Each structure stands twice: as C-alpha cells, then as structure tokens.
Fold this protein.
Amino acid sequence: MAIPFLDLKPIYSEIQAELDAAYREVMESGWYILGAQVAAFEQEYAAYSGAAHCVGVGNGLEALEMCLYAFDIGAGDEVIVPSNTYIATWLASSAVGAMPVPVEPDPRTYNMDPDRIEAAITPRTRAIMPVHLYGQPADMDPIMAIAEKHGLKVIEDCAQAQGARYKGRPVGSIGHAAGVSFFPTKNLGAFGDAGAVTTNDATVADRIRVRRNYGSRVKYYNENKGINSRLDEMQAAFLRVKLRHLDRWNEQRRQRAAEYTKLLRQVPGIQAPHAPQWAEPVWHLYVVQTAERKLVTDRLDRSKIGWMVHYPLPPHLQQAYAEFGIGKGALPLAEHMADHVLSLPMWPQMTADDVAAVVAALRQA
C-alpha cells in the first residue's frame, strides 16, 4: 500500500465545514488585512502559548528577524544558532546584519547542546536562538541560565513545535521572544505563508506591531522604516479553526510516534529518536538515523512509502555561507546527522497500520 510522507488532505476533509464557514465570514466582512480575525487569533494563540502577547506576521523567517530587530540586534553583533537546523535560523541573523555563530547539537535529541554554548560566547554575542527541532523542545533551563549570566536575549525558534512543552511550560513562552511559522506543513499550518511572534515583553510586541506595518501605527504616519509583513485575515480565520483541534492532532502524532518507537526496537540498524523525560514533543517530524540511508530509502521507494531528509546539507556547508569559510569537518555532529537522518511518514490521520507498514519496509531493508 502506498503511504505518502505527508498528507494534508485529511485535515481539510475532517474540518471542512468549519473552514468553509470561516472563509465565508471573512469574505462577507469586506475587511481583509489586520482586522477582527487577526486580533482574535493573536489573543487565542498567545493564550495557547502561555505568552502575554502574540503578533501575527507574514512568515516564520520574518518572525525571527523581527525578534532580533526588536532587541536592536544588528551589524557587528553575534547570534548563537544551532549547527543542525533549517537554514532560516541562520538567515534571520543575516537579515539584520548580525553574524550567526553555530553550536553543535546533543546527538541524542538533535537540539543545541547547552554544554557547548558558553565556549561560543564572545564580547559581541547578543542572543541565543535555540530551535525546538522536529517538534522536540530544546533544553531551555540551562540556556536561560547562560543567557542571564552573560546578559543575552533568548529567541526561541518554534517553527516546528506548536503545542510542545518543556517541563510543563509551553515553548514560545520561556525565552524573551519566539518566532513561529504557520507554513502549511506545520502542526498548526495555514493555507499559505503565515507566522507570528510570541513574547511576554509588551515593548517587544509593540515594536513588532509597528514594524510589520510599514513602521506605522497610524495610517500614513511612519515612525520608522518598517516592512510589510502582516498575517492576513483569511489565514488568521483558518488558523483559529485549526487551533481548536491542535491538541487532539498532536496527541494523534504522539500515538503514532510511540508506535514507531516500539516497533523500531525490532529493527537493527535504525536509531529511533530520543525524547528526554522533561520533554513533551509534538512530533512535527519523526526522524531516525541509519548508516545505510541509500539502501533504506531504495526499499521505501520500492514499497511506495514516502520519506524525506531534514536536512541533507547543514547551513555552514551551504553556498549561501561559503564566505564564512567553515569547511567540511568543522562541525562534525551536524555533518554526521546530515548524512544519517531520515524522516519517516508522520501526520495526525496516519493509522497504526500505516506505521506498521513503514516499519515492515525498514525491516526488509
């Protein structure tokens, strides 16, 4: 049986009536930018995330960039980022003129290793940007302690972790600010590009609200050279509907992840992901490691089972950052993961039979 890597259609089918009603409400309102839907979603997502404020923006990359802007981080500054991450985390630093400084991951969790952070701090360091990669919370307590010790800001990259918790606390409420992506494939996904910033700092929220709207809080009067990065009414309306179902969908992901982990104990050569006891992941991705990735993916292809690699080339080896001169071998943990990770099918409406079929193909490989 064919199993796609990701199937978004069942989510729409499941809540079609609610989404269609939301669409009609927006269309009939005659108001499509920064209206009642965005304001309501911002309140609802802030409450869901345990943060005092939420500001809807155009996408997740701009959310991270605006967090840095709000703390006056820019040219000449350094931002500590994971070596093992999607490149957007690095690009946000570059967008404000700051230098991304990579720190290697904990090989068990794939996330930034707190024990390696202090060695990367210099007099120019202004912020730490941990990523809750694949929906698994980073180890935030030691990161926050290091930041307090050195007077740094912590900006959480929550692009893949809507609903995840760290020691009972929602991600996105622990650092000084957080950037969120609502790209369609995320656990809470829009039907196009969308993003948000969450923060407990009213000044940060206010600065981002002004910046996202051409640097203006009063129409035609511009306080600064802002940008156009606004969550639109239609996407906000759709996100409000989907937010009501997010915890249930995340629980379905947890069930599928538990089934994967249990069955993979019987498959030599496949390393299942590790979740610490303090972590409540939401399994945006279920990422294993194998030294025989080509052999395994060939078998999955023959079985018509989807797969992806997140990510095949770490940021420091991308052409975009060739100017840094960080050669191959400089960040061996990130490079090892790039060569060994494999993402298996994962979405809320997957069945236990789907998981069993994927694992059966892995066992055959």
In short: The two ends are 17 Å apart (CA to CA).
